[in-house]
Amino acid sequence: MTSPDVAWGAFTDVGPWTVVPSDLSWRDGIDELRARTRLEAPALTRAGVLPPLGRVARTGVRFGAALGQWTVLDRLGGAEGATAALSARLRSAFESLGPTYVKLGQIVSTGSGVFPPDMVAEFAHCRDDVPPESFRSVRRTIERELGGPVDETFESIDERPLAAGSVAQVYAARLHSGQDVVVKVLRRGIGALVRDDLATMAWMVRHVVGRLRVARLANPKAVLEVFAETILEELDLRLEADNMLDVARALGESVDRRVLVPRPHPELVTRRVLVMERMEGFAFDDASSVRAAAITPELLRGAVVSFVEAVFAHGVFHGDLHGGNLRIRPDGRIALLDHGITGRFDDTGRRAFTRLLLTAAMGDLSGQLEAVRDLGALPPDTDLDALAVDLGLDVGLPDVADLDQRELADHLQALAASLLDHGARLPKAVVLLVKDVLFLDSAIALHAPEIDLFAEAVAVLEDLIASRGDELAVELGVAPDALQVDLAGLRHMFGLSDMEQLPYEELCRRRDLLRDRLTSRP
What we know:
The protein folds into 2 domains: 1-278, no CATH class; 347-519, no CATH class. It is 54% helix and 9% strand. It has helices at residues 30-44, 53-75, 82-97, 99-109, 117-123, 135-146, 150-153, 190-207, 213-216, 220-233, 237-251, 287-292, 298-314, 347-361, 365-377, 384-391, 405-421, 428-447, 453-476, 487-493, 504-519; strands at residues 154-157, 163-164, 168-175, 180-186, 259-260, 264-269, 273-277, 282-283, 316-318, 326-328, 334-336, 342-344. Strands 1, 2, 3, 4, 6 and 7 form a 6-stranded antiparallel sheet that branches.
């Protein structure tokens, strides 16, 4: 018999228990808790006169040693693979500095196409290869949080962690009722360390990074605030459990329920311990298993559609997509794990996101700029017509493959200057959204590098229009029959008007060309 909670959430058909949000005692005061956490982030990232000097000194020593050893032993020593060696030394320094820097390393690991491949590969170890805390310490935390010996709650628990992350560790266990579960436990004493690190970073943003004009476009203060907000939320597992419910509800709006969320336990959730349903499956980054299952690229397209629909319906999305957080289940559906970081758009942002997708599909340039403005990336009073002219969007972007090194540098500098002059920045929710898009990009590289990106973009947009055309038309204020995908408009927007197809290999070739021209000397 199908579990009743499947009616409102993207859960497995038959669960180990039924989730009724109104009956969950650990949700008492959850909205106030979330609000307090959000208020703490800007307070912590408001740089003071002096940073925590002890933490600054330790950070400087760790990074100085890593760079010094690389310079003397690897770079000047002529060692092969110097970039890989630097990445390994930096990753070691990040891990030695604790959870905040490990979390930054995890962000680097999802930056395929932005950071060097050696660095992305090395920092991928920050996902689940962090040295684990002793189980003796973990046992004490569980017993203190749940109010009794571990044996009273669990029939068995594996002392070897399934994964050891920057903020918490997870363990396989079985309840006395026979249900297989996963137990997530926060590391000891990370709160003070995280807060000191955030204060140190705030000082650096204000006095170092913030003085660089090129950094203003990324709005490093906003990036730091969203990083602070997400890692502070991870310090209370009640918020993560509540995130699971919100994401499940949002994904439950998807037509085919392609992506599933584990159920948090109705009772065994506290600030430092979270017990949840165990979701079996093989890792998403296990390319051979994914290909053998013959569910690519359909699986990728279905996941993207579910993701887009969740943002459209509720403005909520998983903010930390990477291969370690995804499992492919035997039925071909995806289990979405680790909900410590969740992106949220308010109603204005949610509508703007929807409008951006649809106006891009329809080739409506002015509509796209309006949506970008309403997402908070441009000031409310921006002259969008003037911006379009300054960016050259009225005549179309040039194909970077046709530009030589000097022309490319001049073009990018002109774009950056125009955006800065118009007050452009990256708002908080967009930072997480971009991070997820980078992961989806790397997923295509791993599982389906031969696909035509134009064709897949059209398929995703047409699926969305087919399933939610009437709602989308209302959001956009147009007649339903006006929602048509304009492939020529998509090509024009990316400066690729003459290309009939865009295979992923071609996108990678263009990226390599761009990187080579930007990094080579004139």
